[in-house]
Amino acid sequence: MSIQPIPETGPESPPSISGAQIPKRTSSRSAGGRPIWLMWPSAIMLFVIVGLPFLIALYISFLNLDQYTLRSWIHAPWVGLENYVESFTAGNIVGTSTLVSLGVSFGFAILTTAFITPIGILAALTVNTPFRGRGVVRALYLIPYVIPTFVTALVWRMMFLNKTGLIDRFLAGIHVANINTYWLLGPNSFWAMIITDVWASWAFIYIMVLAGLQSIPADMYDAASVDGANSWQRLTRIVLPQLRGILGLALLLSTLNHFNNFTLPFVMFGTPPPVQVDVLPLNIYVSSFQLFNFGLGGAMSVITLLIMLIPGIFYIRTIRLGEVTV
Amino acid sequence: MKKIKRQRNSQDILPPTVRIIATVFLLVFALIPVIYTVLLSVTPDSEITSGENLIPSHWAFSNYIQMWTSVNLAQGLFNSLLISLTASAIAVVLAVGAGYVISRFKFFGRMPYLYSLIGLQTVPGVMLLLPLFVLFASAQAALHFKLVGTYQAVIVTYLTFALPFAIWLMVSYLSSIPIDLEEAALVDGATRLQALWSVIVPLALPGVVVALVFSFLTGWNDVLFASVLTSPETRTIAVQLQAFSSAQEGGALPLYGQLMGASIVSALPVVILYMVFQRYLIGGLTAGGVKG
């Protein structure tokens, strides 16, 4: 009979609102009528701009579509699951197989999330209680997160330039690595991408955890103090368990977003990218727009989507848990 | 939140020294790339590529002048601003309407619709790129109406992409506004729309601001769709910078300094936007989540 608003977020964004009072569903007999039509514009747009292309992409994945057959794409030859099979077999000329890309994408998403979680939690803990200058610190913490992705990519590309970039200079300065270490090509590129995205997105976890911290009742802390708990115990026994819900959500969203991230690797490494950073979105882009194998690109998109559905369903179930009933 | 005054706030998890060290470390981590970018933007390009000294021998402020022509920066900024502002404004208006209906009324397909909004957010952008382009191109041919390369196509695309999150946000916010206020207005003779406009929206303003900011960002940050849907006249700053950067790689003397300067300028509006609305954004987080 009512929706319980629970901490929820969208892509790359923090808000979590738990409402106090929830209005009851109104019937059409109440004064003022039911302006259901208010929903139509958005529903129509979503269908036309997202729904239809989605269906088209699905259809394309079963076709052998290239730049020649694109004009009358509806009549392009039907090849069934051939694209799907092809995407899994050994890589094409410039690209890599879907399996490799899957591995890269997963590795990237999971590792990045694993790194940003402790950083975000730590950051939230440093500003949870007031101190002089806290507002400034909070504002500064946000900067890496709010800088547009393409700027982040360009900045870190400069930092990772071999020989002249800040990273190589620093590492050589402390005698840890050769000054001419390549970060934008070769095996290090994977780590370059992770480091960049960690820098850009730890604030996401920070924001979520901060919100969660603020909702821990003060009495819990006080009780712990009375019981003589030390810092570590307070952290692990009180704070972290309370944060489980919001952390779970944050981790889920983070993994999902990093998996789908196209802009960062695209701007940072260009196309075709080194195999170590050939994440799925990039691979799909290369297949479709540089190799003009649209059918293959479509098949890989569908595979990506199917994989995304798994955390997506988790996400939905988590949201649903907060609901009483429709 | 009531805090009992103690010698040390019991909510402080970290011992003071740990806290200070962590804060400093985090700030350094967060800001070094920013400082480096500023430094590079005033370094002569020859010194960037030769990699001799960190501090340039002379300040190349000329980068900030030349970049406007090298990148057609002004046009790009204008385009990005126009597109993102329009898309976000329309998206939020639509989202408020949709959110209002979903949070107040029962109708057939309500829950599936809500869940589909989440599902839509998981669709990878790359998947939609070609079909959307094909859709626009076909419509363009059929209707004899220029679409690809216009502002309208990009605005419509961005606004639709921003909708799922904006609607979710508004549903959350609007659900937490008690219905008595509207009903009072209705009793006074207002229509639902009037009640919505004069009573609900002002109350939901934090949510509206958050939705606006995030929708704005959807447009500002996007590279993928802009690269396909814009013409040289309507190109956004994201695509311009990305193209400029990849053009440098093959060149004799990469214009890194100008690239960095242009990057700063294109990040600035967004950073300022966030700083201005920071209170709303973070406030929107904790509002309602705070227990007395």
Could you characterize the architecture of this molecule?
- The complex is a heterodimer of chains A (326) and B (292).
- By secondary structure, chain A is mostly helical.
- Chain A has helices at residues 40-60, 82-88, 98-126, 134-146, 149-159, 166-173, 188-214, 218-226, 231-260, 263-269, 280-289, 294-321.
- In chain B, helix 4 (73-104) runs parallel beside helix 7 (151-175) and helix 10 (205-221) runs antiparallel to helix 13 (256-286).
- Residues 285-292 of chain B have low confidence and may be disordered.
- At the A-B interface, helix 1, helix 3, helix 4, helix 5 and helix 7 of A face helix 1, helix 2, helix 4, helix 5 and helix 6 of B.
Helicity range of chain B: over 70%
* Shape, per Cα inertia axes of chain A: globular
Average per-residue pLDDT of chain A, rounded, comes to 79
Radius of gyration of chain A from CA coordinates: 24 Å
Spatial separation of the terminal alpha carbons of chain B: 5 Å
Sheet having the most strands of chain A: none
SSE topology sketch:
The complex is a heterodimer of chains A (326) and B (292).
Chain A: H1 40-60, H2 82-88, H3 98-126, H4 134-146, H5 149-159, H6 166-173, H7 188-214, H8 218-226, H9 231-260, H10 263-269, H11 280-289, H12 294-321
Chain B: H1 16-41, H2 45-50, H3 62-70, H4 73-104, H5 110-121, H6 125-143, H7 151-175, H8 179-187, H9 192-203, H10 205-221, H11 224-229, H12 237-249, H13 256-286
Helix pairs in contact in B: 1-13, 3-13, 4-7, 4-10, 5-7, 7-10, 8-9, 10-13, 12-13
